[in-house]
Amino acid sequence: MSRTLPADIKQYFVVTGNYWAFTLTDGALRMLVVLYFHELGYAPLQIAFLFLFYEIFGVVTNLIGGWLGARLGLNRTMNIGLFMQIVALSMLVFPIFGLTIPWVMAAQALSGVAKDLNKMSAKSAIKIVVSSDAQHQLFKWVAILTGSKNALKGAGFFLGGALLAGLGFTAANAVMAIALALVWLASLILLKKELGRAKNKPKFSEIFSKSQAINYLSAARLFLFGARDVWFVVALPVFMAETLGWSHWGVGSYLALWVIGYGAVQSATPYLTGRKVNRPPGVSEAIVWALFLITVPILIAGGMVTGWNPEWLITLGLAVFGFVFAINSSLHSYLIVAFASEDGVSLDVGFYYMANAMGRLIGTMLSGWVYQEYGLVLCLLVSASFISMSALCLLPLRKYPLG
Q1: Cβ neighbours of residue 65 under 8 Å, at least 6 residues apart?
Q2: Neighbouring C-beta atoms of residue 4, cutoff 10 Å
Q3: CA distance linking residue 4 with residue 10, whole number of Å
Q4: Distance between CA atoms of residues 348 and 336, nearest Å
Q5: How far apart are the first and last CA of the chain?
Q6: What is the Cα–Cα distance from 353 to 129, expressed in whole angstroms?
Q7: What is the CA 5 to chain-centroid distance, rounded?
Q8: Which of 104, 189, 226, 266 has the fewest CB atoms below 10 angstroms from its CB?
Q9: pLDDT (tens digit, 9 = 90+) per residue, 266-284?
């Protein structure tokens, strides 16, 4: 006898598929912009500014997007996000005012809104389809979604480098816009059930979280992702191309493999943390893994100062950083879904990912400025200090129950 999946789970799979397709274009677009504008002679800080609106609008979108998801349903926020990404890609195919910094920043702004609408929709949907008494299952589903998303973002980095080398900047964006338009049309047909609509329509004033646990966790997330992006977003690819002499293909391929591996570790976190069967991890585990992470950028910076081979040091050091960071990120992603209120879950998740976007914004700007003024070593030391702040923000969470 054939078994039919529940309607909510079918809808969740559609949301996840949309998220995966979107993530490929998001990763590819980021790599295209970094490498193309570095090739044009833009300084690291100028390249960082190209992503300024992407991150700022991500902050705003997570706040408003969570509220919209609770009122309208996650299917609508997902479809709006897909459409906005198509428009953003099209702006780089048909640059009415040329590929100036303001025009590219405007396209990145739309892409930032689109990305966070998609992320909020997918992450919020998990809380709805997993019963409240199955926290270990919730941990597993969150880990799989988060890991697979990042693996596909890594594939997007590879895709971006390959498209830039093979087709050029404009044609690469055209191909991605057409492919995503097909996904969007399919989504309009398949996403019929309104996941995530709150029973009691939240007021706009409720976009800010009233939960102390969510506030502490959001602050920890801000510093965690600021720690990653302060050396990964601008400083690292420019260092690889400028100092190590790597080609666009080489930079895109290595960062793609890194993010794919990073995503695989995130998916495997329930096994790596030893919590795959009966009990999900708690806050204490997240603190311990944060302490492990602090040591990695310090050791890489120390190796650079003492004259180790920079190519081997960065290649191996980044791999270790990615492994430990992936576990930290996966634990945080589980904790937000576990702490979030089930009714109107997108409000709590949206507020949390607003902090995530704020961390990326701070990290991206610092990545360009600190690298340009002081070099990669200081970027790594700033990263270590941010991770320390993240661990401190987790300490008060130990008194709050999960679920």
Answers
A1: 77, 116, 117, 120, 346, 350
A2: 6
A3: 9
A4: 8
A5: 35
A6: 20
A7: 29
A8: 189
A9: 777 777 766 544 566 678 8
E strands, 225-363, where?
A: none
Q: Which two tokens stand for residue 53?
A: 């609106």
Report pLDDT digits (tens) over 322-365: 899 988 988 887 787 777 665 555 566 777 777 888 888 889 88
pLDDT, tens digit, 9 for 90 and up, residues 72-95: 667 777 888 899 999 999 988 887
Q: Render pLDDT for 358-374 as a digit per residue (tens, 0 to 9).
A: 888 889 888 888 998 89
Q: Distance between CA atoms of 281 and 335, rounded to whole angstroms?
A: 9
Which pair of structure tokens corresponds to residue 318? 């980044």
What separation in angstroms does the CA of 348 have from each of 12, 135, 193, 268, 335?
A: 19, 18, 21, 25, 12
Residue environment code for 326-359, b if the CB has 16+ CB neighbours within 10 A, otherwise e: bbbbbbbbbbbbbbbeeebbbbbbbbbbbbbbbb
Global pTM value: 0.71
> CA–CA separation, 148 vs 136, rounded Å?
18
- Cα dihedral 137→215→121→258 (10° resolution): -70
Q: What share of the chain is helix, strand, coil (3-state, %, to 5)?
A: 80, 0, 20
Q: Where are the alpha helices (DSSP H) in 191-234?
A: 212-232
Sign (positive or negative) of CA dihedral 129, 147, 331, 70? negative
**What count of residues does the chain have?**
403
Residue showing tokens 């893994």:
289
Token pair recorded at residue 102: 């303001």
Residue at token pair 């976190």 = 269
Helices (H), 40-134: 44-50, 52-72, 74-93, 101-129
Q: Is the CB of residue 371 less than 8 Å from the CB of residue 288?
A: no
CA atoms of 61 and 63, how far apart (whole Å): 5
- Candidates 319, 227, 229; CA nearest to 265 is 319
Residue 227 carries which side chain, given as an amino acid letter? Answer: A
